Predict the 3D structure of the following.
Amino acid sequence: MAYKLWHVSDDSGAMVTSEITERPLTRAHLIDSDSYILELYNAVYIWQGKSSSTKEKYAGMKIAKDFVRNNNKPAGTSVSRLPQGTEDSTFKSFFDGFYAHIKEDFGDGPQTSSAAQDMSGVAAQQVKAKELMFDKLGPLDQVTKTVYFVEADFHTLTPITDEREQGKFFAESCYVVHL
């Protein structure tokens, strides 16, 4: 899926917008003192760090609206402002490390607690499923795969050729994996 992350900052004294091309995107790319624009096919998110300046926040909104107008985005493209801490699941799905690791088990009792699960049984099932899949596929060095992104028209398949994007799947998007 074609997406871009833009960094909006006035740290140098002038408003500067620069594209972040490093992949995969991580939560560490979002600095609290700046604003960012995540440009998707039919949505644009403006993430505003809690310490970003008012000028950066306004510039981010203006630039995002200009993206929609100047890049022939489809009708109905949404522009959403996301102050830090209010990110939705779609936005978070584009960044590794956005979700905190679970440190406590909040099960309602011994039947729902993860400690009560037979983990060796679960692991054995996963190993068996993996073996069956690899038996069906054959030697891994001979398996070829192509991953396609299904475009919004649901008829166009766009191959994902960037190796950095292989294995990355985003919320509310459709993919076809051909083995």
Summary: The CA atoms of residues 32 and 49 lie 4 Å apart.
